Amino acid sequence: MAEVVSMDEIRATAARLDIDLSSLDLDSIRLPPGEDFGVISDDEDLKGEDPLEFDAGFGNIIVVDNLPVVPKEKFDKLEGVIRKIYSQIGVIKEDGLWMPVDPETQKTQGYCFIEYNTPQEAELAKEKTNGYKLDRSHIFAVNMFDDIEKFMKVPDEWATPETKPYTPGENLQKWLTDEKARDQFVIRAGTDTEVLWNDARQSKPELVYKRSYWTESFVQWSPLGTYLATVHRQGAAVWGGATTFNRLMRYAHPQVKLIDFSPGEKFLVTYSSHEPSNPRDTHRVVINIFDVRTGKVMRDFKGSADEFAIGGTGGVSGVSWPVFRWSGGRDDKYFARIGKNVISVYETETFTLIDKKSIKVENVMDFSWSPTDPILALFAPELGGGNQPARVSLVQIPSKEELRQKNLFSVSDCKMYWQSNGDYLAVKVDRYTKTKKSTYTGFELFRIKERDIPIEVLELENKNDKIISFAWEPKGHRFAVIHGDSPRPDVSFYSMRSGTNTGRVSKLSTIRGKQANALYWSPGGRFIILAGLKGFNGQLEFYNVDELETMATAEHFMATDVEWDPTGRYVVTSVTSVHEMENGFNVWSFNGKLLYRIMKDHFFQFLWRPRPPSFLSPEKEEEIAKNLKKYSKKYEAEDQDVSLQLSEQDREKRKMLKDEWERWVSEWKRLHEEQKLERQMLRDGEASDEEEEYEAKEVEVEELLDVSEEVISFD
């Protein structure tokens, strides 16, 4: 890379060579062909690659084939029929319909070109009218104009494709073999995106990779941490590696807004929403499902925003995201979406509906997959003014067999929470009182892995307590609930096991009056953070649920997010750019010790890199836990070495500061001696610098500030 030269250096060089820069037109200067003088363009990596087929400029034009061949006198009638059909789909541009005429016969040639205002309208017209039956003899064949050029380039004779030699790529899991067993995280601040190691022993992060303008909106790790996805106007891209982060694949989807990985990282779902030409119409939604490794579109879904806006919250332009929810486990076998009175379940072998039809569920409002098994939990509210009760159903896929159903009465709202192993399902049910003027909350607890899936009802001691937050212990049998009234609600802990009776829920403890509105369990369970975010200004309590005791309390002022690392050793609290001040993040130990703090202006994102599940069996993990002291000796020795190294570094830093101070004092004394004669002159010849040899006198000085005259009347 050539050295960057500042404008001051350029001006100095121009003055030395007697060149008047004001007379030069710098914009007119062109480099010789093929010469870059060592300054590499940011887009250099795009050269030499096959260009993505994004928008070649004719994306809003379709070609309609198999039209009737008519003479000139019937031309206007045929054009009117075609215009009537295609103007219902979108706005055709002025002079945007052209039917070529054979100059010899003066008849149409059986096809036409139609130009719409937008590519989205053209895509919709192709989708809706390809195969449209005008009459028995004329069935439309519709293609995009851009596709015609591709078809023309297909050679007449098949040629054997060139075999490229295999070149092994980088091991995308290499980062998991870090000798210090550290975890990586990604942050976005300003225009920069950085991937860093969390080096807690050194009390600072270590930079792995940094890039400016890496994404145009956000970044996202894949669920197992293999890929980092970025979002651009032309589509999405995934990057991977331990230190280099090379681009592995690009996915063409213009104006993409949201992305979502399948749990096993086999598929990537992309979403875009486009403004309609007619203001009265809803947004046009395009969803693509890509194969992550090949970049091939496996299935696309297109339609109005209304078609994708049923059920759920948290979407864009009224659309619930993610639109498609993936079945549990890592096989990525099924995905589903909610529709009007249906749940549509697709399988990824053919990307078609199971049994070629959706599951009919009248008035279905929400659904969720078990995290580990192909089981759907569905919720449908009451119908007919309460004559037909609300219900929660468990449905096995692909058989669509109903495993369990629970009818619920006087239901105001319902929310489902799966435990991470799929062992339990908690259904939070808000019910109306008899007067219908207020509501109270209870829980329906399903034991999924037990015979006949028994259900237990849990009500709080005070039924009128508002439920602020609920969270299962990962891989465990306990759950926590924040309930009561702000600003100091209570936090209760429950277990699905009761002493020797493993089939009954029991309360473990309630801690009263906590400034908390969110719960964050450690990924390994046992420890939990009771967080007071937003209105509570970042109050944090680190709690040990095994011992039912507080380990530490702290505050991260204005904290907006809390994120545990995948191992449960460290936790990060951050203040993102929703606040103008205090942007940055704090790294804490699991027991509440602040390890280091990083401040970043315009801080947007912090994401830990996920880890894939351990290959160790539960028995092996249990054995390691029992013999932890034996295994930990090695790491304790390493920690001691690091501690000694840090102590040595601290000593060197203190010595450096002391030496710097002594140099400053020595320099001050030298200057003091040089200015001695000048000080003597200012003191009228007095030579001494000692203050005690002088007598201080107070002198009073009177000063007239203002004089005014005023005439006073004696009347």
Automatic annotation (TrEMBL):
Name by which UniProt lists this protein: Eukaryotic translation initiation factor 3 subunit B
Entry-linked SUPFAM superfamilies: DPP6 N-terminal domain-like, RNA-binding domain, RBD
InterPro entries linked to this entry: EIF3B, eIF3B_RRM, Nucleotide-bd_a/b_plait_sf, RBD_domain_sf, RRM_dom, TIF_beta_prop-like, WD40/YVTN_repeat-like_dom_sf
Subunit structure, as described in the record: Component of the eukaryotic translation initiation factor 3 (eIF-3) complex.
Highest taxon listed in the record's lineage: Eukaryota
Localization (cell): Cytoplasm
Region (Disordered): 680-699
Entry function: Component of the eukaryotic translation initiation factor 3 (eIF-3) complex, which is involved in protein synthesis and, together with other initiation factors, stimulates binding of mRNA and methionyl-tRNAi to the 40S ribosome. RNA-binding component of the eukaryotic translation initiation factor 3 (eIF-3) complex, which is involved in protein synthesis of a specialized repertoire of mRNAs and, together with other initiation factors, stimulates binding of mRNA and methionyl-tRNAi to the 40S ribosome. The eIF-3 complex specifically targets and initiates translation of a subset of mRNAs involved in cell proliferation.
Coiled-coil region: none
GO biological process: formation of cytoplasmic translation initiation complex
Positions with biased composition (Acidic residues): 687-699
Gene Ontology MF, one: translation initiation factor activity
Record-annotated RRM domain positions: 60-147
Family to which this protein belongs: Belongs to the eIF-3 subunit B family.
Thylakoid keyword on record: no
Cellular compartments per GO CC: eukaryotic 43S preinitiation complex; eukaryotic 48S preinitiation complex; eukaryotic translation initiation factor 3 complex
Protein's UniProt keywords contain Repeat: no
CDD domains: RRM_eIF3B
Assigned keywords, A-Z: Cytoplasm, Initiation factor, Protein biosynthesis, RNA-binding
A Pfam family hit: RRM_1
